[in-house]
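Exercise 7.
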Amino acid sequence: MIVFIALILVAAVASTIIISTIEDLQQDNEDTSSDAINHIANKVVMDSAFVSFSGSSDCTATLYQHSGFGGWSATYTVGDYSNVPNSVGGTFLDPDGDGNEEAFSDDATTIKVDDGCEIIMYNGNDFGSGGVPGGQTAWSARLGAGDHSLDDINEKARPQNCGGTSCNDQISSIKVLGFELELIMKISAGSDNIKAGDISWAASCSDGTTANIDSENITFSGSSFIDGTDTLGQENNFIWSEELPSQSMFKVEATLGQCSPQIGDQIEMYIHVHQGASTYYLLNIRSLDRGNDLMFNS
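Solution. The predicted structure, written as C-alpha cells, is:
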C-alpha cells in the first residue's frame, strides 16, 4: 500500500513538471514569435535623398572664445566633433587629436567658416541627442561661409536665440560639412511607435580599391519632422527618447565624412531599426547640385 501511494505521488510530481515545461515552451514560442513579428513590422523606409550640401573636402572652421574673434581658438576640419573621438581621433575639445585641448565646452562666442563651407553647431556634447545641461534648451545653428558674430549665431539658431536671450557660451559640439544628404524617411505602416534613438543610417562608398563607411544614429546626425519640429511641437531636433508614430514622416541630416562622392559614383544606403528591420537603397550620383533627389535618379 505504501509503495502504491509513493508511485502516485511520483506520477503527480512528474505531471506537474511536464505541464510546467510545456507552459514554459509555449511562452518561449510566443516571445520568439513576437520578436520575429517586431523584426518584420518595425521598419523605416526612405522616400527621398536630397543633396543638401556638397563642399570641399578641405573645409575648415575656427571657433573663438570671445566677440571680435579673440581669446582661445580651435580649428576643425571636415568631420563630426563631440565628446566621442571621431574617425581620426578628434573631439570637440581636441579637434586635431594631438592630446592637447584647444577648445572649452560652453565657452565660445564667434566662429569663422571657410568659403564654400558650412557648419552646424550644437549645445550638448553629443549634438544634443540625449538632452542638454540643466536649464538649457536643446538647439542647433547652421552657418555658411563667413566671419560670424554672436548675433549671427543667435539669428540662425533653432530655436532663435537658443530658446533664451543668447547662444553665448553654450557650444559643445560641432560638425564641419563635406557632403551632406537630407534623407526623407517614414515609419512603415504596421510598425509600432519607434524610438528615435533606435533608428540609424549607414552609407557605404568605394573608390574601387577601398570601401568607406559613414554611420550614425539619427539623433546624433540631426532629425525632426518635415516642418522642423520635434514630438512636442517645438522647433527642434529629436532627442534619443522621443517616440515617432507609425506612418509619420521625418527628415534626417546625413553628413558623410568618409565618403566624398563624385558624379558617376554610387552610395549604398542602409536604414536600420534596433530589434527591427533594415532597408537597403542604391543611390546613383548623377548630379551634385543642391536639391537633387538621388532616389529619383537611382
